Amino acid sequence: MKILVINCGSSSLKYQLIDMERETVTAKGLCERIGIEGSKLTHKVPDREDVVIETPMPDHSVAVKLVFNELTGEHGVVGSVDEIDAIGHRVLHGANKFTQSCVVTPEVKKVIRECFDLGPLHNPANLMGIEACEKVVPGKKNIAVFDTTFGMSLPEKAYYYAIPTEYYEKYGIRRYGFHGTSHAYVSGETIRFGKLDPEKARVIVCHLGNGASISASIGGKAIDTSMGLTPLEGLIMGTRSGDVDGAVIQFIANHEHKTADEVLNILNKKSGILGMSGVSSDFRDVEKAAAEGNHMAKVALEAFRYRVAKYIGAYAAAMNGVDAISFTAGVGENDKNARKRIVEEYLGYLGAKIDDERNNVRGEERLISSDDSRVKIFLIPTNEELAIARDTKRLVLG
Ligand code: ADP
What we know:
Blueprint: E1 2-8, E2 13-19, E3 24-32, E4 40-44, E5 51-54, H1 60-72, E6 86-91, E7 102-103, H2 106-114, H3 123-136, E8 141-146, H4 156-159, H5 166-171, H6 180-193, E9 202-208, E10 212-218, E11 221-225, H7 247-256, H8 260-269, H9 272-277, H10 283-291, H11 295-318, E12 324-328, H12 329-334, H13 336-346, H14 356-359, E13 366-367, E14 376-379, H15 384-397
Parallel strand pairs: 1-6, 6-8, 9-12, 12-14
Antiparallel strand pairs: 1-2, 2-3, 3-4, 4-5, 7-8, 9-10, 10-11, 13-14
């Protein structure tokens, strides 16, 4: 069985064709600058040279057509479209309408459209991707995999904001959580790889990348997660502030003569380690600047680790203990120093101990705590595409 996984942005389309027998990537690629001058498709097949096609892509349908041409054409990886069993789409927001992935129907599309307000940057693009596939390969099964379904198991005490309930009732304002596909995958892998109790294991997943979030789950079911109504809440990220006092928005708006939208744009795009350091949103650049003596770069990284540790503490309390902590995503998978410092500076009280030799690793599934650590600590590379493909396969097989 072969599943095509599609992740659409407003001007981009990422794809992977996954062979489900071996769970390996047959081909993958990226369409960039869709609808803008200079559109480009980069198509990669393992052990072959990359194919780069520069041709106008006025909309997502043209991009999808080009992707299928590459997959099935003269140098394609499948004989025909029929060999692709289904398409799994990443969809950002499903509000509280979807507790699991589902086959796309007109009703499902209607809900994705109703959630445009909640995911204004992603949901319209996600729907465009789905409709482009419906147009280019009619009859092919499309599956929607929502980033928000993982957060649907949160108890009321974790998802309600302490604001008048009418706003939940009228607009669905609550904590949803994002990176759900990653958290579900990594918590599941932690239980499998760590041979933990599949029903009772209390796992904290630290998804630390440019976007960063942290989740607490018991037996793979989320009980809390750091992102909220939107991905702004929680940890300090590359460009997002994470938690701030809501009054900051009003204060900046009043003093800088900006609208709420403009201030939110600052909190989403110009804050985080970029805003604090003034150097970059890339952790590697900020680390370099800190090593060269840039004080605010150093503070930004300290604040980032401190916030992660505070959430770990909160989630250990929420679950009355923690059996495993897993690190994933760009920083979590590649930055051994960040992992070591979070554990050594803040998690001693949990009896968590890192093993330097085991921790000297990048992007590989591995136990990185010492044998006498009371909490198991893992590095588990995330694989959102595979998680989407697995869900798609499950739904196709019924
Ligand atoms: P996203 O998917 O949210 O865009 P990623 O999970 O790919 O982000 O993470 C990107 C971040 O990971 C970048 O800020 C990058 O600096 C950081 N990163 C990658 N490798 C390293 C490393 N060796 N040390 C520190 N940070 C790293």
